């Protein structure tokens, strides 16, 4: 099909995208990152609504990718997706290590801001700013998920925390596959389908995504989950972020790029 972009071309586009992302201003990284965090949080709420209404988790997984494809189509910034691209530019000497860390850090902060903002707004809308004490099925589900993702892992000690780490690797293997798959099409519909399939897989299998957890864990805390801020970060966020880096870069970014890139061509960048 005329719409199809070959893996060889995708590899070149991956590096070009990595260099382009690294050159964005902090303001743009924060704004695009915040929008991405909020959109992914909205998708989680939508997926939980679908799951609780149908009692079928696959239905929730089917609708969850809507936020991700919006992020891809609008060229927003999701740190988990960037894990598969921006470090490649550093490994190839296109950008400095400082610029890589700067980019990923600001996008992470932006994602966190957007996720927390939607969590507060979702809590306010669901409880009429604390006036309604009886929680609905979605809110109850968020509480259970929040506790399971933190004190649930901690309750099993090192094996539980290692499980979170492995789930994070498996998750971003698929998420970054969605980022790269979106580059295989020039059409909007093609990008939606290509990006959405791997995202459906990760959510259906219940793996761990750092930005999703930026919403669901603090939202659960707002609704009454027995989870502290230290529980959130020590038993999940730090561990899952590390796993997402490995899954995105090693299992997806490097494997796709280095098996398809034409090393005789270069992409210009900077080393600021």
TrEMBL record:
This is Formate/nitrite transporter family protein. It comes from Flavobacterium quisquiliarum. Keywords: Membrane, Transmembrane, Transmembrane helix. The keyword DNA-binding does not apply. InterPro entries: For/NO2_transpt. The chain crosses the membrane at residues 29-50, 62-91, 103-125, 158-180, 192-212, 232-258. It comes from the Bacteria. Belongs to the FNT transporter (TC 1.A.16) family.
